[in-house]
Records
---
Amino acid sequence: MVTTAERVLAGDVRAASRLMRNIDDGDPSATPTLQELFPRTGRAYVVGITGSPGAGKSTLTNRLIAHYRRQGLKVGVLAVDPTSPFSGGAILGDRIRMQEHAVDDGVFIRSLATRGNLGGLSRATGDCIRVMDAMGLDVILVETVGVGQDEIDIAQMAHTTLVVVVPGMGDDIQAIKAGILEIADVFVVNKADRDGADRMVRELRSMLELRHAIKAPPMDHDAHHRMVIAKAHGTHREEEKGAGEWEPPILKVIASGDQGVDALVEQIGAHRGWLEQSGSRQARETARARMQFVAILRERLLASAIARLERERGQLDEVAGRIARGEADPYALADSLASQLTR
Amino acid sequence: MVTTAERVLAGDVRAASRLMRNIDDGDPSATPTLQELFPRTGRAYVVGITGSPGAGKSTLTNRLIAHYRRQGLKVGVLAVDPTSPFSGGAILGDRIRMQEHAVDDGVFIRSLATRGNLGGLSRATGDCIRVMDAMGLDVILVETVGVGQDEIDIAQMAHTTLVVVVPGMGDDIQAIKAGILEIADVFVVNKADRDGADRMVRELRSMLELRHAIKAPPMDHDAHHRMVIAKAHGTHREEEKGAGEWEPPILKVIASGDQGVDALVEQIGAHRGWLEQSGSRQARETARARMQFVAILRERLLASAIARLERERGQLDEVAGRIARGEADPYALADSLASQLTR
């Protein structure tokens, strides 16, 4: 009998789709297949595309698909939308816009809409990247909506992360906070024919300069604790710093008019080249693996802990009710469950 | 000797600030104080304010502070910014804008910038809300940037959640996805003097109607699993549905010109009244407690699991390196750690 994993490895779109749906649903039956696929992955190049809603990420993704297709590469697109409760992803959205590629069998587009899932979005994204990788896709574009912690986590799963901004979105550059600066390998100022595009470029440049000027905080007694935490979260990229800094380029693009997209593709290639030559590729792969592992671990732990809690103390809702009425101490309960892990 | 908890209960700003800084840092020394404060909380009314960057949330928060102060209420503001890596919160931001209230000792403003913290943002937010509650503040405004899963989690910690949108932010209502619809108790169309404000109101109204039209998906073998997960995450509000629906009002506001803010304060009061009268308040308190407990639990579990992993298998980075090289299986590792909890 042919296993699901074998079908996926052979590029079977229906098998891969079904598997990804199970991953999105948090169905534990996906795990053995993922374990079987795992050693056969690691070939695809993953590009993250993030930025605020309305920044034109889908249009840009569309253009990138077209460019990579012209190079003869097979392209996967994973549209991650944590705010949509409908399976199948965004309501009005990504799929419709990318319909021009729907009949191209060198393009595989899927949406993830995991929610209410105990932080399962990062885990599901990591797993789906693996599936697309196993299918033999050359480039995987991971598009995320929003600028929250989840999006930062997901950006850590990419080799190259594009941060897309548009002129005049906020009142100032409030929209581009420092956490975003840190994850950006390439900045895209989209809709660059709008007023304020040059100002946006200048502001981004000063923020990048500001970043260099900021010194590391002095070490104190909490420093180790914080560093362990930051490392676990994969937000720690200092291992790349020694190997010759990558200066994130800032590119003006008009995705709707296909202007500047060639230059963008070139810069993605340049970043890839830098990762290889500087020896940072390995550090980046480790960071990706760490992020994906932590995402899997976090979800498994919480599911197991809640199962145990419900066995010993009653349904989660009853426990929460007792906490709300001040009859149970949430800190003591959490510590008692977590202590099982340190024994 | 006077404990930190006693100081906080007496409204000591310095003690509360120090405690909140420790909470933000993930310093475990905060826990005993939180446990001591816990039974003394539950009086404050918590209003969440969320929306995309540039929607004018800080200006609106400012106006709300002024309105509540005129009613003689003590106001706390917690500005949550997951994208800022600098302790002290946003670089150019919230604090500066709220400076007009800086010398008013009936107003207590703090930023949270927790990051790289294993999903610690939700936990830190819940804990800081408790501290502000214990200080005797009457209304706590929790302002979040972004529209990711973390922001949805944090919204669950409020009694009333405002979703702030502005006309012309995205190309269409792409910016307001259904997950946001579900958490909104009141919609604020800010900068309502801009073109497209009425269209935005109409579009929001149709999305709300669409929501009513969408039927629940049929139950299948995974339904129970998914429901447990959704319940754990606190995204399950069906307990409120029976008690007479709350229809989220859509308000046009110009925060910068203080227009429409009275009506907004009134609607927040109306929602509060509805929570009480419909009996939904208790369900909402349970949902809040559940979200806060899950946030505490998630962080504790991951910290303990990583400590165990590092004791048994080497530093997380080494383990991640082995995963990246295909020498270790992340699913098996996660399951082996999680299995300690189900024994």
---
Amino acid sequence: MSRIVVQKFGGSSVADVEKIKKVAAKVKARRDEGWQVVVVVSAMGDTTDELLALAKKVSPNPPRRELDMLLTCGERISMALMSMALQEQGVEAISFTGSQSGIITDTAHSQARIIEVKPARIEEELGKGKVVIVAGYQGVSKAREVTTLGRGGSDTSAVALAAALSADCEIYSDVDGVFTADPRVVPSAQKLESLTHEEMQELASAGAKVLNAQAVEFAREKGIVIHARSTHTAGTGTAIQSRSGGGRVKGVTCEKDVWVLAASGAPDALLELLDAQAVKGRNLLFDEAGRTLVVVPTQDLHGPEALKAKLPAGVTVLDGCATVTCVGTGLNSDWTVARKAHATARGLGAKVAATYTSALQLTLVVEHQQVTALTKALHEALIG
Amino acid sequence: MSRIVVQKFGGSSVADVEKIKKVAAKVKARRDEGWQVVVVVSAMGDTTDELLALAKKVSPNPPRRELDMLLTCGERISMALMSMALQEQGVEAISFTGSQSGIITDTAHSQARIIEVKPARIEEELGKGKVVIVAGYQGVSKAREVTTLGRGGSDTSAVALAAALSADCEIYSDVDGVFTADPRVVPSAQKLESLTHEEMQELASAGAKVLNAQAVEFAREKGIVIHARSTHTAGTGTAIQSRSGGGRVKGVTCEKDVWVLAASGAPDALLELLDAQAVKGRNLLFDEAGRTLVVVPTQDLHGPEALKAKLPAGVTVLDGCATVTCVGTGLNSDWTVARKAHATARGLGAKVAATYTSALQLTLVVEHQQVTALTKALHEALIG
């Protein structure tokens, strides 16, 4: 029996009809090598943002259940067109929604988590020799409600399917793999041959756009190796796996727009509010004044202005912040990296509002306008 | 218990965000009168055509199963936005896909027929006091495949739901009701207070765009009265019901672009081909040369050029034709109408390629360029 590969193509890889045809040719080539291929697609280009803008015109704070109904159309359009493109190239293909693919999630609209994958229909169609196209980013709850997995959720769809099908997992984008920093910010950034799931998780949750953090967590749990590759070139990309070599600091990344919510006294009311709004704070920490700080990327806030209006007493918002994060296994086993990082920030005159470290990362919270210079300087100082 | 009404709004009634908000206000007003409301929506404006154009760029003859996956996004976008608009106006609402609404169809992709409606989820939400928004034009087969009901299928969705819910049925469009002819073609056309289901079926299948023929057939079978009304005004519109008054000829309508497929000898091979392609011929007749003629609206042909290439020997195509149809109960009980119609055509110098009549209609097949003048002249001669 031939092996199965799950190939995920992001929005910019399927942004128009010509690009869809090119991806179809790439998929066909893989199938012609004897592989059974499952293709996971995102929405075309800016479709998701356009649908979101339409929703905002109707309602400044649209109900999430309806937003999920709306946004899932994006992937559905891509998958149908991809299937047509493959069939036009003589490859038998069939597209499935998240629901038809058996991707069962919890009921948290807009940020659902996959709880089970029942790929019976996919396996049946693969068995008939078809390429199966799956709409990324979406699933269905046990109450048969359509859900979405949050931004970048198509990566999670791909990993979950690879795990359920015991398949290889390849995630394609416009870049050659995972870099030590965003090459647009740090021109000297280098491609990594490999890194660990944990390192990738930290990079992704600290702002690196190349792979989705939940997807990597899923891959780690299931022991799946993710190959991050370029849609346009034939390189081997970067392998995200359980072990990796190389230096201590694997990458430097930043999140350019975050809120820091600071609660003086007991933070329970704040945490309860965030929980009710399904806002997943990236980090929780305590600053020198004894306040609890929650750092949240602004894009993860649903209706930021509405949230501001509901904030409990004693909670203040620092908006216009940014984070710069260094990622590497064992970063907190000594203080070398932390000392170098603070010295670098001081050298730039960047005021550090808060710092936090874990076994895998060190993050500095700074003002928005410092973020690019500090990212470059930390890359230079810690990776070179 | 309050009564249920199913209100269907077509594509031009929900063409943009402002129009969606206006329809939401209209729905809210009805609900505030104490009705339980189910809203069936079509795709916004030209969305379906735009999606179809996208598909044609990928494949000149896209597979219908994938086309259904693609096109159903149109109604899904509308329904989510309509639900958001209602909630924004303080009305509790929830949207359902065809599948979630329990609209079960056969497996004929792109021209599926509804075989059963199981509105349990709709009834449950109505019971909670919510307005339920349903995506028109779509259903799901027993094999859980997404299907569409063909152009105008949202009307069918509305009627089927009204039947299943024992509800009133109102179909809204940009016009005040059903007219004796298209007012853009015949300025003297008058609005009808009522007509029978059978008369409406004939008008619709002969090209009148106001209501879908399958929808009217469904309403007739189930004994549902359809109220065709304007989205923009408060008139009572036209009732389509089991009995009607008025003169013998109720309306004159035309289909501007049809193919006449002519088979000399046994027509079996032609019919088999049309059957395999799920092309529903509008009429089958025999001309004076003993040929079998099948008249098909060009828009119902899937890949006309591909079909031409496959035509069996002995079959010729007359394209560039048009039909003009007079509708009224008992039209063939004497020859008055037929004689007047032929005299009218002769007076215009229009060559009649074929004629056919039934209990409810009389149709002339003419060349495309004669269609407008003949429609006007027949309306003048038979209705006034």
---
Amino acid sequence: MTATAVTDDTWENLVKPTTGFWFEEEVTEDFSVKIRIESMEHHSKSDFQDVQIITTSEFGRTLVLDHKTQSAARDEHIYHESLVHPALMMHPNPKNVYIGGGGEMGTAREILKHKSVEKCIMVDIDQVVCDLALTHLKQWSEGVNEDPRFQLFCEDAKAHLEQDTDTMYDVIIMDIADPIEAGPGIALYTRDFYKFAVSRLNVGGIIVTQSGPGSHFNVQSECCTTISRTLRSVFDHVYTYCSDIPSFGSNWAFNIATGVERITADMASEDVAINTLAEDVGKDLTYSLTGRTIAEIDQTIDERCVDGTILKFYDGVTHLGVFGLTKEIRTSLKNETRIMTLENPVFMH
Amino acid sequence: MTATAVTDDTWENLVKPTTGFWFEEEVTEDFSVKIRIESMEHHSKSDFQDVQIITTSEFGRTLVLDHKTQSAARDEHIYHESLVHPALMMHPNPKNVYIGGGGEMGTAREILKHKSVEKCIMVDIDQVVCDLALTHLKQWSEGVNEDPRFQLFCEDAKAHLEQDTDTMYDVIIMDIADPIEAGPGIALYTRDFYKFAVSRLNVGGIIVTQSGPGSHFNVQSECCTTISRTLRSVFDHVYTYCSDIPSFGSNWAFNIATGVERITADMASEDVAINTLAEDVGKDLTYSLTGRTIAEIDQTIDERCVDGTILKFYDGVTHLGVFGLTKEIRTSLKNETRIMTLENPVFMH
Amino acid sequence: MTATAVTDDTWENLVKPTTGFWFEEEVTEDFSVKIRIESMEHHSKSDFQDVQIITTSEFGRTLVLDHKTQSAARDEHIYHESLVHPALMMHPNPKNVYIGGGGEMGTAREILKHKSVEKCIMVDIDQVVCDLALTHLKQWSEGVNEDPRFQLFCEDAKAHLEQDTDTMYDVIIMDIADPIEAGPGIALYTRDFYKFAVSRLNVGGIIVTQSGPGSHFNVQSECCTTISRTLRSVFDHVYTYCSDIPSFGSNWAFNIATGVERITADMASEDVAINTLAEDVGKDLTYSLTGRTIAEIDQTIDERCVDGTILKFYDGVTHLGVFGLTKEIRTSLKNETRIMTLENPVFMH
Amino acid sequence: MTATAVTDDTWENLVKPTTGFWFEEEVTEDFSVKIRIESMEHHSKSDFQDVQIITTSEFGRTLVLDHKTQSAARDEHIYHESLVHPALMMHPNPKNVYIGGGGEMGTAREILKHKSVEKCIMVDIDQVVCDLALTHLKQWSEGVNEDPRFQLFCEDAKAHLEQDTDTMYDVIIMDIADPIEAGPGIALYTRDFYKFAVSRLNVGGIIVTQSGPGSHFNVQSECCTTISRTLRSVFDHVYTYCSDIPSFGSNWAFNIATGVERITADMASEDVAINTLAEDVGKDLTYSLTGRTIAEIDQTIDERCVDGTILKFYDGVTHLGVFGLTKEIRTSLKNETRIMTLENPVFMH
């Protein structure tokens, strides 16, 4: 059946129904978010994953991989600014930056805002997603591909690092899917990978990784605390922080790690590294809050960014907010004992 | 974030998540169906309604107008065969058939299966839907537009009948949206419209209309009982029947009405018609069950259809099934007193 | 936070939100129904299953076992009348009736409406459900327990039949959970069980079983067609029929089987039985439609029921409706080849 | 139908389905959260609202009023600690504290942890909720009613303040439902109410109010920015802060206001107050971050709380985190121009 005649001029005044299309995404087994869909622009199956681009009423255009939100127009800047700027601003002079994953290209876009950056290498396994970013996700990828500092390789992120031994990096940014049971990226969250990453970092180098949900609940933050604990078994200093990203249905965690000098020595003495570093957690966590003032961070942003850049999310006050983890999350971090290995992975829901 | 390396050959064996996209359609305020979406092929706003073509895992390609399922690949034949064949088989020799609405073209497709039909006029207000049927809904529209007996007009279904006074019809088929509060089609469910329709029917002519949900529950079937009651205030014989159409989330009702000779006289004496006919309900309802045997219906199908036609849903036994309304629905029909007018419409949810 | 002062008299005129509580029940993996919950009266875990009694806005009080609707106040009479009356009315003089399962007691209630019944034995494994039926489901159980013809045993339905060899039955009614992969009742849907049941039936005895969803779709009706096929490998005559039970989210199927004399002989020659009976499907299916007239069925109901009984759903016209299966379901039944055994079960979703 | 025999010992190994009961709560029209329900303990309709107590798998026992989560066992401490402690710790010596609303009694519980408090007056309109808190929400109300410093009145929160002119308060805590269109509490979010509240505050007094969702999105935070702007039209200093409360489906905002001396003078000159104060926003917002060090806040908590008290959420680092609003929220606060009055209310969804 289909509609027919509008018999009078009241039609315009009638309440039209809103769409009945929804994207339901599980945050945990017992808690989901439900987001109204306006349209679906793309649907395909790459060699690695199901790929959809949809538009939701709440968050605008959204990339969905294997039925999980990757990033959405309305708040992708929160995710990408959170992932990139704290690490790059913490480094005194980041020149070479490596992105593991990063298909949407929002991470590259933020990195290229830094004047100091001379080379930005991005390695994402999925050509389909990278191509879509250029054609369908212009808000994410605008200008990236034209920047001569940027190079894209569609291959395995770890294999590339292993093979290209010429380039050493100041910052490595891991922008990959969560460590879920069905996911391909588990290996890139393990102690072995982090130890290997050290060998590709310059002195003073920094690694940062997206780290899954970061709520007050142990069950929701166990992925982020395990990643933190795993990094602490390799690096001197690990800073965990969380941003509110509404389209992810939860606060979201990140971990920055640094301290390459000491770690290189630690490689010979694994157990010592693991045990002694755990005690530093409390100190490290608050260090980031008091190490620099709000004004100093704001000044660094001004100095580092290419002329005319306006960050929408990150500044000095935001920095204090995202690193000011609540008592409960800090306790979870302190109490975490698991170290992620291929043999003993910790999976997100 | 995006996925990266597949580090081993276990990937193929992993359980892949199914899509998190859903179409939720309210059947009543307190009861909805939830259908998994695979993809959305089309999304637009015509002058009359929101138009979507989606593909669901359960029902295949589906036309959605104003966020209500119109028909789905998997069971549209049930809807269209139910709407068309009982009425056409009941008529001794249907030559001229009129479709009010019918945008998907499935109704036309079924009508054109009848050898006796010489002219099939379809009038749907929405050009956008009709065009989409030809390009995106080939299962529905295949062959229709090429049939010389078929003529399509995109305009008001009632206005067309009023203006084109040359053609008289043997069967009028109303394939329009449900009478919802926000809908444009209310006028086409009223006693006035049915009285007018009589003037466009040949002697022995028949009108059939889709009539909304037809469940055992009064609240769900009040649309269908009101349409039946409204038709009974105009026609001698009204037959209500129901088909199970899974994609509609409920059994679905139809009403066939006939008895033009007497009605024409009744026009002068409205009240008599209304009151006396109500008593005939019980008789009429069972009449259809015994009037013809299963074998007679099966034989009529064979004789009437163009060579090679295979109906998937309708035959003699099906006929008895769909007209064999349960005791409760027959009671609701008997007890219904409301007659639909523009001043006193009865709306579906 | 909690609400505070009503500061003026507009409160009554404000739109109050409806509840946000829902029961989502999967009909298939890709199709669910969503029913608004008003309240939850009971929640426990018996030795066999999760047990809930809830009240929904659409269907009233509802028994939910292992998170599947068992029966709801608003339409339980459709289920229970459909399960009981066609079989009992088909038998010339049913005295001893056996119920396998039947915890809500609606099946017993319908059986006890028959004057001819002298003994009604019900055997349900779950004491918790039976007790709840008496205290919380009075609409279902009213009067049952006080009827001297009724006896309840809480134990294994098959074991009871095996041990109590004194009683032979005229009708056996299987009112048990669907054959789902996680369910305990698989054994009671197998050819072995049906062969055994024959040995507990009097000459001319009848068995009827609820048979899961009965839609036009193969995937939805594969449980019912397999049960039909399995019964056809044992009994001479198998009649499949479907009722629309809105709270189940789908039409619902039942199978009646009879023909004990011949079957007993067949026991020695299994393959013959299986192969020859398959040819009878078409005849059997339509037989039920023409075997008795509407008037004859209505008269039988009058004669058989205890004085004052009013059936709400079932009568002669309803009978023709529910047995008038559509062409597609009849084709599925004809084409079904699977016979359910413990080694080769067919599971519902 | 009900389940029957477990025919073998595999039952324990079978996967049992999880419940199909859900609480869906709209955060916005296009974004909902879906929380699995284990049981419903209570359901009633008070004079003011629908009242439910449910238990969800994710958040435990939960009070739901008019179908919106009020607070849940798993994270109610975040809400109540956030509402109470920043304001009380900011005051040099809080003795008399007033709670408008607060039915669950979690707010009173937190207040009574302060040694300095001599009198805690709570006024909630809904006796039903208060009674339920004592019987069904012991985690919230434990010890409150037995504390001689606590007094409960079930009446209009504003009327009580107007009538009881003997008591002046050091801190007023507004713990009432969001200003939704259908809600009774609109009047308690208006400029008029805040001006009146000043007259009930001692010199140096502080008012704090829960302020609805506080996300990065204007549409989600418009309630909180309007409340902030309204308070700024009355008070010298207004501090907005946000906590992540998972069961609310969003970050949650609060506003603290102080500066009674100046305001009292402003009463004569409304427009001046409104216009000049707007300029202070930036300063005020960051003031709270630098005014006291982490160590000072931790020390104040130790000194103020009764012996043995352990706060689970709030401490010095948490303080910096919740007041460290992101650049976007601070911009929304700065740009907000609306002042809430009964004539021009701003409603939450």
